[in-house]
Write a structure and sequence with these properties.
Largest sheet: 8 strands, mixed
CATH superfamily of the largest domain: Periplasmic binding protein-like II
Structural class: alpha/beta
Strand content: 15-25%
Helix content: 40-55%
Number of strands: 12
Number of domains: 3
Distance between the termini: 57 Å
CATH class of the largest domain: Alpha Beta
Shape: globular
Radius of gyration: 25 Å
CATH architecture of the largest domain: 3-Layer(aba) Sandwich
CATH topology of the largest domain: D-Maltodextrin-Binding Protein, domain 2
Length: 302
């Protein structure tokens, strides 16, 4: 039986360096250790696990199945240790609580900067860690307990979380100056499908919404370019590479000053709901519960 007391954090960090570099030599350079010291650490881990963790090759190493298993556990252990050290440092300087928030791009770009600033102004002893993720990833993280609160779009299923209304936003069509649609004030999505589109990368809730709408119209969505941000969409449209759809609040004044035109969409699905959720609202820490209540108590969420 493997004895858990035979593992130490430094050896796990060394093993992680070996796994990431694929080389004992490069791992030794990264860790500022000798090659023999690195080899001894790996040998000690193999004795502790009673498993071969690496396959040695003339030009490097690769992980065995057991090595991959240890890598997954090592990542989780080191992440928890880093979180522990960070939170203890926070307590030392007066922070009294930590809340993890994962949110989709729409929430991060449009609403969260102002909302979090307002919350932290009256709750200075709380620290918030914010990660920008796809809506589907946010929901998965809620279920797995990797985040306390999550914000996601309404077209992604989330049956096993406690969710509340966070905000509503409006999608608009963005077109370059001189485009055939630039002179319109409103348009139906189906009437835009003759043109090339700039869209977000696969997996985004916004792209899923557009693909579903194109399917309902029995027309293909002609994706010419895909990028990872609303700013990227705007820049590609400005370069004349296509048209795109994004939240109205993400269309900053400087974008319109550059000559782009925002056209209102007449489709009902263009008005979206953003949800904020917890895995179990009644199981939140006091700090997370306070943020949850604050986010759902804004005038826009009423």
């Amino acid at each position: 039986m493997v004895n858990p007391t035979h593992f130490d954090l430094h050896s796990l960090r060394v093993f992680l360096a070996v796994a990431e570099t694929g080389s004992l030599t490069r791992a030794a350079e990264r860790c500022h250790m000798t090659l023999s010291a690195i080899s001894k650490r790996i040998a000690d881990l193999e004795r502790a696990t009673d498993c071969a963790l690496l396959v040695r090759h003339p030009r490097g190493v690769e992980l065995t199945p057991a090595g991959h298993g240890l890598l997954n556990h090592a990542l989780q252990v080191l992440d928890q240790v880093n979180r522990m050290a960070s939170e203890m440092s926070d307590f030392a300087v007066g922070v009294r609580g930590h809340v993890r928030v994962w949110a989709n791009t729409s929430a991060v770009v449009q609403f969260l900067p102002t909302d979090l600033q307002r919350f932290l102004a009256v709750n200075p002893s709380i620290r918030i860690t914010l990660e920008e993720r796809l809506s589907s990833e946010v929901i998965e993280a809620l279920g797995a307990g990797r985040t306390d609160l999550g914000i996601f779009a309404d077209n992604v299923p989330a049956p096993l979380v406690d969710k509340r209304l966070y905000r509503r936003d409006q999608l608009v069509l963005l077109v370059p100056a001189g485009h055939a649609l630039a002179g319109l004030t409103q348009i139906a999505f189906a009437d835009t499908l003759d043109y090339d589109y700039v869209g977000l990368n696969s997996g985004s809730s916004l792209l899923l919404r557009l693909m579903d709408a194109a399917l309902a119209a029995e027309r293909p969505l002609r994706l010419r370019v895909q990028v990872s941000s609303f700013d990227g969409i705007s820049r590609m449209i400005e370069a004349g590479l296509g048209i795109g759809i994004l939240p109205a609040a993400a269309v900053r004044p400087e974008i319109l000053e550059a000559g782009l035109r925002a056209v209102q969409l007449t489709d009902a699905w263009a008005e979206r709901t953003l949800w904020i959720a917890a895995k179990q609202a009644d199981a939140l820490t006091p700090e997370a519960a306070r943020l949850f209540e604050f986010m759902t108590g804004t005038p826009e969420a009423q």
